[in-house]
Design brief:
182 residues, alpha+beta, 4-stranded antiparallel sheet, 24% helix, 36% strand
Length: 182
C-alpha cells in the first residue's frame, strides 16, 4: 500500500473516531454530572416527605426564573429568598402569566446552584414536573413544595433554585390537550 493510501486510511479512522466521540459526548457528560453532582441538575422525580428536621441550622434558599428565547410568559416567586431548616417542608408559590394573545404551553426546567447541592434539594410538588397550559392572558399560581436534606454538608449555607421557562407550544397541540382536560 502506498503512503498516500495509508494517510487516507488514517484520516478516515480519525474522522470516524471524532464522529463517535462527538456522538457519545452528551451521554458521557450526563454520567459525569450524575457522578460528581455538577451542573446543578436536581431530580425531576417526586420526593418522599422528610422525617427529621435539623433545628440547629438555617439555609437560605433563593428563587430565580429566566424566560428562554423571549417566550411570552412572566413567572416569578412570591418570595425571592427564604430561610429554611433542613428537613422542614416549605411551600413557595410562583405567579405565572401568559402575556400573549393566544393559548400557550410552558415548561420550567430547574437547576440548583451550587451544583454539588442539587442532590440535597427534594421537591414534593413542583410545577416543573408537568407542562403548564395557559390561555391567552391567563394568570396562574404554581406551587413548589420542597425541603432541603438534613445531610446537606455544612459548607452550604445558601442555595439558589433557578427555573428556565420555555415556550413549548406546538401548532395544533394546544387545542387537543385543552379539550382533553376540560
Amino acid at each position: 500500500m502506498t503512503s498516500q493510501g495509508k494517510l487516507i486510511r488514517k484520516l478516515a479512522f480519525a474522522c470516524i473516531g471524532m464522529f463517535g466521540f462527538a456522538f457519545a459526548l452528551v451521554p458521557l457528560y450526563d454520567v459525569f454530572c450524575d457522578i460528581t453532582g455538577l451542573n446543578g441538575k436536581p431530580s425531576l422525580e417526586q420526593a418522599n416527605v422528610s422525617g427529621t428536621i435539623d433545628e440547629s441550622r438555617i439555609v437560605d434558599v433563593g428563587f430565580i426564573t429566566h424566560i428562554q428565547n423571549q417566550a411570552p410568559f412572566k413567572v416569578s416567586a412570591d418570595k425571592a429568598i427564604i430561610s429554611v431548616q433542613p428537613g422542614a417542608m416549605h411551600k413557595v408559590v410562583f405567579k405565572a402569566k401568559n402575556e400573549s394573545d393566544v393559548s400557550r404551553m410552558m415548561q420550567a426546567v430547574p437547576s440548583v446552584s451550587p451544583g454539588l447541592a442539587a442532590k440535597y434539594m427534594h421537591k414534593i410538588e413542583c410545577f416543573c414536573f408537568n407542562q403548564q397550559a395557559l390561555e391567552a392572558g391567563e394568570e396562574a399560581d404554581l406551587a413548589l413544595m420542597f425541603y432541603i436534606d438534613t445531610a446537606l454538608p455544612l459548607e452550604f449555607e445558601e442555595l439558589t433554585l433557578s427555573y428556565t421557562v420555555f415556550d413549548i407550544t406546538k401548532s395544533g397541540q394546544m387545542g387537543s390537550s385543552q379539550g382533553a382536560s376540560k
